Every structure is written in structure tokens, then in C-alpha cells.
Amino acid sequence: LDPDTFAADSSAVVDFLAGYYRDVDKYPVRAADLEPGRLRRLLPEAAPEFGEPAERILADVRRDVLPGLTHWQSPSFFAYFPMNASAAGFAGEMLSVGLNVVPFMWVASPAAVELEAVVVDWMARLVGLPDRFLFSGSGGCGGGGGGGVLQGSTCEAVVCTLAAARDRALGRIGHEGIVKLVVYASDQTHATFQKGARLVGITPANFRVVPTAAASGYALTGAAVRAAVEGDVARGLVPLYLCATVGTTGIGAVDPVRELGEVARRHGMWLHVDAAYAGSAAICPEYQGYLDGAELADSVSMNPHKWFLTNMDCCCLWVASPAALTAALSTDPEYLKNAGGGKPQAAAGAGAIDYKDWQISLSRRFRAMKLWFVLRRYGAAGMRAHIRRHVAMAEWFERAVSADERFEVVAKRRFSLVCFRLRGGGGGGDAMNRELLAAVNASGRAFMTHFVVEGKFVIRLAVDGAMTEMRHVGDAWELVQRTAEQLLQRR
Ligand code: PLP
């Protein structure tokens, strides 16, 4: 690594990206060219034999790659959930990849491990989690009893918690009992729980999808879980794990954490709170109520890479019992025993953590640097303003939809996601809404995705882009209205 080349190439990339962000609203939001195989036809069959200058590579990125991208950072990207980018997120990521250390054990990079332990505690306090999820509780260092880790995604974090819950239960009932273990989720829960349950050996027939209904705002109710659990116990099965979601992917529904926690406690289940998207909102006191009851949970996760201005990838996972997690995930190979002679006594309990035992992979990124940079650069007040700005824009959109009698808001908006559709029941109504969404996206001027609520096709507008301003939300609404008018006239 030659420092001069490093500096030259890096500044060329920074200039390139600054230009990209200046122009990002000029690109069609969704990839304009949806023909599969386009890039393969443009690129050579084999890698180059000799190195090329960065400028030539960047020119190819501009010419060949950018036209085939869907621009997630466009201010008119309202699809899925966002993947926030920010100047601080990028700067922190640059520092992280520039230093390129691998904090899998304390001795492998002590300050990187310790920074991670500090940052996950900061985040836990900011979103109002109880002390039991912190390394350092209100009683000082070592007072919390729990702790956190930064993983790449909620999907990875969920697998780890399922493995911990499984091993804790099997320790009680014996390994052959694995066929009896049951995982509970709702019909709104993210699909990753189903995948995770399969990965840790839960019999697919023992994954319970408990139905939700409009009456509860599509939240999982304690009564519904209790009924499912009691039926399973009567058949000799063993309740293992329950997922409560704060801000479901489809419509942003919120499960009652306390109510579900009480059911989980009564039946000895592991409770996980998945706040992947909406957990960021809990930095504002007005949203912390959604995490009420978190002291009854065994683990909580949220993704700063979604709505917390932290570039990909970054997921906070907190556990009340690190021992339960590490019992399921720890390894002790000979080749890691000589990494520096162990921990000094004074460091034990003060962040001297072997994070390899808190996750699946051994090699891991220095994500703490990025999240620390974001928190320091914007401060808690800046982050609260960021969340509230998006919620205010979503509120405006929701009011605009409600004021137009041709449309309806389909599910209660709690955060910055608005689910709406053109009125009109039956299959015809769905076809019309599908057509509306397809036409809006084909325009290239906004990108939204859909969900299905009680059999009805619904358009989702997630207002969380770091560059999104009121005028972009206003334009999106005008686009939806105009497109709808054309559709309705043709019918
Ligand atoms: N859980 C919820 C509620 C989500 O909305 C998502 C993604 O949108 C996930 C989990 C998956 O997160 P990740 O992509 O970090 O695995």
C-alpha cells in the first residue's frame, strides 16, 4: 500500500462521489435499464492482466455501472426501507476500512473492541433500553450485566439469538428435544425469523405464524400467542422463542413488547425485539414508549444502517445474557491462543470482549468507528431532528392522501412509512393499484414498493432518505395523483 497512491485514488473516489450526490436526483430512481445481462455484455470476459489507473475505472463506473443502478440515495427513493448514507457515515466507514483492523478478540485490536462496547452502550442509552442490556449499568462499569455487539444485519443477529435460545432450552430438556422446540412470530414478522429457525435446526412445522388483524393494528396480541402456546404445550411441544417487532417491514405495525414479554416469561421463552427500522426513532422520547417492557426481553436489535445515517452495514444487537450467546457461539482454536498473550486482569469486565463469540464469522469489520463518528458528528440532538424531519414529511403525505377522496390510507402510520391505495375493492381495485405503482416507478421520478394487507394490494411510501426534502415528497404525491387521474380516465 503506497500512501501517495492511496491518497490520490481516495480523493478521486471522494470527488466522484461528491459529484454523484450533487446529481443523484437527475438519475431515474429505479434502474432504467431492466434488461438482465446488460452489464455482462458491456464488460470484458476476463480480468485485466495489468493494472489500470483509477480515473479509467471511475469513467467505466460512470458509463457502464451507474445507468444500471437503482439509486437508493436518491431523494425520491421511497421503496422498501432506506439505507441511509451521510457524510459522517461515509467518513466513519472510510476510517474503518482505511484502518482495516479486525476486532474479533480483545487482544486482536483492543481499542476497536473497547470502542464497540462503548458505542453499543451509548446507543442502548439513547434508545432508552434498560440497564440489563448494557455493559455498564447505572451502577458503573460491569453494572449492566448484558451487552451489545455490532453485526452486519438483523438476519445474522437473529440466527445468533435463535442459536442461544436453542442451546439454553436443550440444556434443560436434552438434545433429542430439538424436534419439540417451537418458534412464534406473526404474519407481519420479517421472513428472516423463519430462515433463522430453519438454520438452527427448528422443525419447519414448529414455526408458528400467528395471524394479526386490523383491530389490533396488525400487532401480535398476548392472547393470540398464549392460545398458540397452550395448544402446543398440550401436544407435548416446548415453546422456545417469540419475536416482537417494533415497526414491521410491510406496514410499520408495533407489537406490544410488555404484553408479549409476560407471555414469554410465563412459558420460559426467549423474547427477541426486532426494531430494525423503527428502533432509530426511539432516540426521540416520544417513540420510546414502543419499547416499554424491553426489560422482559432477552435480546433487542436495530439497524443504524437503515434510518440512523450510518452507511451500510451496521446492526446493533443487545443481549441480557452474554453468557447465553457465547455458550452457543464460542470457539477456542489453538491458532487464536497466541494472539497476544490474553487479557490483562484489569481489562476483564471493562470491554475486554472476544466478539468472535458473539456472532457467526470470525473476521469482522470495525463498525464501531463508523457509528461513533456518526454519533459524534451529529450528536443526539441532530439525530432526533433527522428522525422528526422524516416523520413530519410522512405526516404531510398522509394528510394529503386522506384529503383526496379517491385514495385511502390503509394502515395507521406510526413512523415515516405511509401505506395507501386508490379506493375500490376487489380484484379490479388491486389491478388498478398495481398499474398505478408500475406507472409511477416506470416514470423514473420516484420509486415505491408494495405490500399486501388482508388480501389488498397497498402502495408503501417510506420517507427516510437522507437527501429527501419536502419538495420531493410533494413531487411524489403530485406524480401519484397525476398518474391516478390518467388511469381513472382510461377506465
Ligand atoms: N426486520 C425488520 C423489521 C426489517 O424491516 C428488516 C429489513 O427491512 C429486517 C429485519 C432485515 O434486516 P437486515 O437486512 O439488516 O437483515
What does the model show?
Its cofactor is pyridoxal 5'-phosphate. This is Tyrosine decarboxylase. This protein has 491 residues and is an alpha/beta fold. The protein has 2 domains: 3-84, Up-down Bundle (dopa decarboxylase, N-terminal domain); 101-365, 3-Layer(aba) Sandwich (Aspartate Aminotransferase, domain 2). Helices cover 43% and strands 13% of the residues. The protein is built from 15 helices and 13 strands. It has helices spanning 3-23, 38-42, 54-65, 87-99, 110-126, 154-173, 192-199, 222-234, 257-266, 285-288, 304-307, 322-329, 367-403, 426-442, 470-490, and strands at 136-137, 140-141, 147-151, 181-186, 207-210, 238-245, 270-274, 299-302, 315-319, 407-409, 417-422, 449-453, 456-462. Strands 3-9-8-7-6-4-5 form a 7-stranded mixed beta sheet, with helices on both faces. A 4-stranded antiparallel beta sheet has the order 10-11-13-12. Strand 6, helix 9 and strand 7 form a beta-alpha-beta unit. Helix 4 packs antiparallel against helix 13 (367-403), helix 5 (110-126) packs parallel to helix 13 (367-403) and helix 6 (154-173) crosses helix 7. The longest helix is centred in the last third of the chain and has 37 residues, at 367-403. The termini are far apart. The model has no long low-confidence stretch (mean pLDDT 94). Pyridoxal-5'-phosphate (PLP) binds at residues 81, 153-155, 190, 192, 245, 248-249, 274, 276-277, 303, 315.
